[in-house]
From TrEMBL:
One of its GO terms (molecular function) is metalloendopeptidase activity. Keywords: Hydrolase, Metal-binding, Metalloprotease, Protease, Zinc. Residues 385-561 form the Peptidase metallopeptidase domain. It holds the Pfam family Peptidase_M10. The lineage of its organism: Bacteria, Bacillati, Actinomycetota, Actinomycetes, Micromonosporales. GO terms for cellular component: extracellular matrix. The keyword Electron transport does not apply. SMART domains: ZnMc. This is Peptidase metallopeptidase domain-containing protein.
């Protein structure tokens, strides 16, 4: 590796010749450097410097006594400076927009800080009391504590909200050096760090999620820098540092870091996390203590004796331009429109600084060892080849597996075991409850295999020459017939690699991890292309062995027809039921009976309709003449309708059909008022819109918002007033009240039912769906879930006024996670309501009542899996009632029973419909 060149180098002093002061902390905001400095008096100041010239960009701000750390909150445009001097023990909040500084008192024990800008939290480490302070930045008086087994020294927060803390107590016997991992759900894992008395301190989270830990060392224990698994905190590998590590910073986009040590600034390469490497330190100043790295790889070093900030420019890439063009082409980026265009596309895809030049960061990324398959240069989210297996009983064959450069005890049996483990990691993504879980069977005849593994040679291993090492390749182009049965997909591992299997041998050699590469290439075989950093399918990933979020999303998109929303049901013909949901690719999927079983179809794909908006549900209802119909929010947040007529399915964009109906927020609700079919929905700007279509006429839309009515914050639900024959719309408003709009002969009126029943102390409503109805001669019944997770009913009493009741409180029910409501007009027991609800343990219950008195019964069926989502569906068919829900195992469950007495019958629609 070529050493990064320190020259040309800039250096500025923030103190005076007589009193240079100390720089303990530097942070990069993207446009400025935040530098904490204090002189001998300890009076701290926060300096804002130009990253290119190190000149001040505005006057410095006064902070507390002896500032030692700076954390940056981009959302608030605020810097948080930790003051550790005896006169402070506080955090200074510096608003860079206004220049104001406010003090957040912490107390004795303060030693480190970190900001989670997404959760809007400030974490401070309290070494004296062995705990973390978690401070709400919207109101810093709101705090909680997280106890730790030992004293925290430094903190770092990952993008997903995971907090890492190094722990140690100097001189403790036995030593308790460790890395603590605090996850967003509150669970805490503590991984010991050896050897004892290492004194771990500085922390950084790399672009791919790996955690870098620097240590001071002590006694006979040499200081070192380690790479740790972000999930467990366990150390994967380590390398001695030149001296005790005071600070470290990860290079954005690369597996690299800079260390500030007592003997200078040192470059760390973590391409192989099991065997990281360092270069000789660069002597910059007398006591380097703080280090930061910007997106282009420029490093900045603060000195505690000289009071200086030094700039180390990244070395200029020395790759010939024809080599850059070759690397880009092999990575899947067309250079015919110009090298700069291809470079910008590559940089955008991989989240690198978009310079259009082969700068040092881009060159290092291009030449990093990895997979020989090209990228697809459209998005950094998971991408698909567009092909995937249609069967789940896959076969594979192991061809020549000789590895001349691997260790002698790396047997073919172990290679086979590692490949089986990699297959199992992908199977675990869907779980055993997935219909037809994947089966992987080895076969002796390669012609009978879906996938053929071998260790050998391939042109892609040579084309890059000395510029890039290619571990393996999945040969899509050499697989005629793939992925159909009978097509063999070759996966070739490079025979010239010194393959290793960390954790499978007593002494590791720290060569490339065969198990990781097998998992990556099997992902290609399943149809996944390269995706985001920090995932198995990243082109330069070198150590992840388990598919991560991006990998899982792509795998689900191809093989997980399992629902992302719960099933919505209705009877389309006597005894014929439909159950519809949004699948992992946001297609509208409908289950329906066929012969003696069930089948399914993806309606949006079949008719060429836009996919559903993420997280929304379809509204099922009958259009004219009993035609089954579905309305949903699709691409561009437009309302769409799919319906069945004349033996086929049809699709219409209701925004276009109605002459420009506004965009949909949340999910629309479709219903009928006599022969008129209608749709209501909220809009992003807070209006309520109703679309209508009378028989033989086109769709029209109208704004039915009422002055004085707060905007909806949830999906509206509409029904017909049985007395007036006009519409009623209920919704949760922006104040979490239950709001009702009613149509009158002269226009619309409105009321907050929460305010109307204020004397009965109703709680605000959650975002769960509302249900309501009114029949001639009866009064309104509206149901929702409040913030106590109670089923709350609003109704008009005999006194003509609105009232509210907590059915949960009255009947002693468990807390409710989901509800659905239906009328049972043909029930022999009388004209009754049916309320189905799920509790938080996955139990399913039903309430029967006349709207005033209620009876409760738990729904129990042999083998019934617990409810797993937040929406239920209840409907009536020919002599039966039905409940549909998505179980915790991801399967759609259909429960059916007679309208009178009788037992529930369960059908697993996912399995009987053969969904793949």
């Amino acid at each position: 590796m070529t050493a990064p060149t320190p020259a040309p180098q800039l250096q500025v002093g923030l103190g005076t010749a007589e009193d240079p002061g100390s720089v303990h902390a530097i942070t990069d905001t993207g446009t400025a450097l935040l530098v904490a400095h204090y002189p001998a008096s300890g009076a701290g100041r926060l300096h804002l410097l130009d990253p290119r010239t190190l000149a001040p960009v505005r006057p410095s701000l006064p902070v507390g006594h002896e500032p030692r750390a700076v954390a940056w909150h981009p959302g608030r445009n605020q810097a948080y400076v930790m003051n550790r001097g005896v006169q402070s023990y506080s955090v200074s909040r510096c608003d860079l927009g206004t220049g104001t500084v406010t003090d957040i008192p912490i107390g004795f024990g303060l030693i480190a800080i970190a900001v989670d800008p997404v959760a809007d939290l400030l974490y401070t480490a309290d070494w004296a009391h062995k705990r973390l302070h978690v401070i709400d930045l919207a109101d810093p008086t709101k705090r909680r504590f997280v106890p730790l087994p030992s004293s925290p020294i430094r903190l770092a927060v990952a993008p997903d909200g995971t907090v890492y803390a190094t722990l140690y107590v100097k001189g403790l016997v036995p030593a308790d050096d460790a890395l603590a991992v605090l996850r967003p759900d509150g669970t805490l894992t503590v991984a010991p760090i050896e050897p004892a008395h290492l004194q771990p301190g500085s922390l950084a989270v790399a672009h791919d999620g790996m955690v870098y830990v620097g240590a001071l060392g002590g006694g006979t224990v040499h200081p070192l820098a380690g790479v740790h698994d972000p999930a467990t905190g366990q150390r994967l590998g380590a390398v001695p540092s030149a001296a005790g590590v005071r600070d470290l910073a990860a290079v954005p986009g690369l597996s690299r870091a800079w260390l500030a040590t007592d003997k200078g600034v040192q470059f760390l390469d973590t391409t192989n996390p099991y065997a990281p490497k360092t270069l000789e330190p660069l002597a910059i100043g007398h006591a380097p203590y703080a280090v930061a790295v910007t997106a282009d790889g420029t490093a900045y070093v603060g000195d505690v004796k000289d009071g200086t900030v030094s700039l180390i420019r990244p070395h200029v890439a020395n790759l010939p331009l024809d080599a850059v063009a070759t690397l880009l082409t092999e990575a899947g980026f067309d250079t015919s429109a110009g090298l700069g265009t291809a470079l910008r596309a590559y940089q955008t895809f991989h989240g690198l600084p978009v310079t259009g030049r082969p700068d040092a960061v881009t060159a290092a990324h291009l030449t990093a060892p990895g997979c020989g398959n090209p990228d697809r240069s459209t998005t950094a989210e998971f991408v698909l080849v567009g092909k995937h297996f249609k069967h789940t009983n896959l076969t594979y064959h192991l061809g020549a597996m000789d590895m001349p450069f691997a260790r002698d005890d790396f047997t073919d049996g172990l290679k086979h075991e590692l490949i089986k483990v990699s297959f199992d990691e992908w199977r675990a993504v869907l779980g055993e409850n997935f219909h037809g879980p994947f089966e992987f069977t080895p076969v002796a005849d390669p012609a009978a295999a879906d996938i053929v593994f071998s260790v050998g040679d391939d042109p892609v291993f040579h084309d890059t020459g000395w510029f890039r090492t290619v571990y393996a390749v999945a040969k899509w182009g050499a697989a005629p017939g793939w992925p159909k049965e009978g097509g063999q997909l070759p996966i070739i591992f490079n025979r010239k690699i010194d393959w290793d299997a960390p954790g499978y041998f007593e002494v590791d050699r720290h060569g490339p991890d065969f198990r990781h590469v097998a998992t990556h290439e099997i992902g290609h075989a399943f149809g996944l292309d390269h995706g985001k950093s920090g995932n198995v399918m990243h082109r330069n990933a070198s150590w992840y062995r388990v598919p991560k979020s991006d990998d899982r999303n792509g795998f689900f998109a191809m093989y997980g027809r399992l629902p992302f929303t719960d099933g919505v049901g209705l009877e389309v013909l006597p005894g014929v039921n439909h159950v519809a949901y949004s699948d992992c690719e946001r297609h509208l999927v409908v289950h329906q009976p066929q012969d003696d079983g069930w089948t399914w179809r993806r309606l949006t794909a079949d008719v060429g309709a836009p996919r559903m908006s993420r997280g929304t549900a379809a509204s099922a209802f009958f259009a004219h003449d009993g035609i089954p119909s579905y309305v949903y929010a699709g691409a561009g947040d437009r309302a769409h309708q799919i319906w069945h007529d004349q033996g086929q399915w049809w699709w219409a964009d209701l925004a276009t059909e109605s002459g420009g109906a506004p965009a949909v927020r949340y999910s629309p609700h479709a219903y009928r008022n006599g022969e008129i079919q209608r749709v209501v929905h909220g809009t992003p700007d807070g209006r309520v819109v109703r679309l209508s279509q009378a028989p033989g006429q086109g769709w029209v839309w109208e704004d039915v918002s009422v002055p004085g009515a707060a905007a909806p914050d949830g999906s509206p639900f509409a029904y017909v007033d049985g007395v007036t024959g006009l519409d009623v719309i209920v919704y949760r408003d922006a104040g979490e009240h239950l709001r009702m709009l009613w149509e009158g002969p002269d226009g619309w009126g409105q009321v907050s039912l929460t305010e109307a029943t204020q004397a009965e102390n109703p709680l605000p409503l959650t975002m769960m769906p509302l249900w309501g109805e009114h029949r001639a001669g009866e009064r309104h019944r509206v149901f929702g879930i409040d913030h106590r997770q109670d089923i709350r009913m609003y109704f008009v009493g005999d006194d003509g006024a609105w009232h509210t009741r907590s059915l949960t409180g009255e009947l002693g029910l468990p807390e409710c996670s989901a509800t659905a409501v239906q009328r049972l007009p043909d029930d022999p027991a009388g004209d009754t309501w049916l309320v189905a609800f799920a509790d938080f343990t996955g139990g399913l219950w039903e309430l029967h009542g006349d709207g005033d008195t209620w009876q409760v019964r738990q729904v129990q069926v042999d083998g019934m899996p617990p409810v797993g989502r937040t929406l239920l569906s209840v409907w009536l068919s020919d002599g039966q009632r039905h409940i549909a829900y998505t179980a915790a195992n991801g399967n759609i469950q259909l429960l059916s029973r007679p309208l009178g007495d009788g037992e529930w019958h369960r059908t697993n629609l996912t399995r009987v419909s053969d969904v793949v």
